[in-house]
Amino acid sequence: MIRYLAILLGIATLGALMWPANAVHARPGQSDIPITVTGTVVSFKYAPRGEIDGFYLDSGVEVRTPKHWEWELSQTITVGSPVQVDGRERIGRRGEIHVKAQVITNLTTNARLVIEEVVNLEGQVVNYTYSRSGRIDGFVLTTGDEVRIPRHLSASITNTIPVGSAVQVAGVRKTGKYGDVHIKPDTITNLATGTVIVIP
After folding, report:
1. CA 146/CA 158 separation, integer angstroms
2. Taking Cα atoms as reference points, which of 99, 120, 118, 109 lies closest to residue 170?
3. How many other CB atoms are found less than 10 A from the CB of residue 106?
4. For the chain, how big is the Rg over CA atoms in Å?
5. 81: closest CA among 103, 56, 100, 62?
6. 116 to 63, 89, 138, 156: CA distances (angstroms)
7. Contact at 8 Å (CB) between 176 and 69?
8. Closest of 109, 69, 61, 67 to residue 86, by C-alpha
9. Above pLDDT 70, what percent of the chain?
10. What's the whole-model pTM score?
11. pLDDT single digits (tens) 62-120
12. How far is Cα 190 from Cα 165, in angstroms, rounded to an integer?
């Protein structure tokens, strides 16, 4: 047993010496940059329950889409379709790199599937929206847009962005699984105070 452990220790030490000192390990969420890729759809990707939740390109790129967009996706592209995908590069929980699709364009038919629309808009906060538990989970602007905020901001939002505040919201407009359209913000700026809320 001691000899076996010594051999394992030796292999581990050798591996550490050979591994580059500046090697970067991928972590979930580490990469989130805008990206555009093109290619031909070679197969669809399926969720455990059988729903289409993405596809693979001939370049080996994995593209992910929300499961509730399955029907719209299948009407826009098929296996063999040349496509352009605008989205975000992401790293999954197991370190795999994929593209989270925002806009998919069929380059043969020019059909476009807009899953998330990048927006940068200004307006005044009309009122807050509330979750079933009674916490603030967003606000409505004079533009009619509903902005969703994460749970950790619910307690502080009334101080940083009170009703009536003029704000600038940068993020994406998306359709939820139940058909609700809302904005998922990346940043919210109070134009009067200059306070910027960055949402990771």
Report:
1. 16
2. 120
3. 18
4. 22
5. 56
6. 14, 14, 18, 27
7. no
8. 61
9. 84
10. 0.66
11. 999 999 999 999 999 999 999 999 999 988 777 788 999 999 999 999 999 999 998 99
12. 7
**Contact predicate 185/169, CB 8 Å:** yes
φ/ψ (deg, to 5) at 196: -115, 125
- 124 touches 166 (CB < 8 A): yes
> What are the tens digits of pLDDT across the range 175-188?
877 778 899 999 99
Position of tokens 């969720």? Answer: 47
List, as one string, the DSSP characters of 15-59: HHHHS-TT-----TTS--EEEEEEEEEEEEEE-TTS-EEEEEETT
CB burial string 130-155: b at 16+ within 10 A, e below: eeeeeebbbbbbeeebbbbbeeebbe
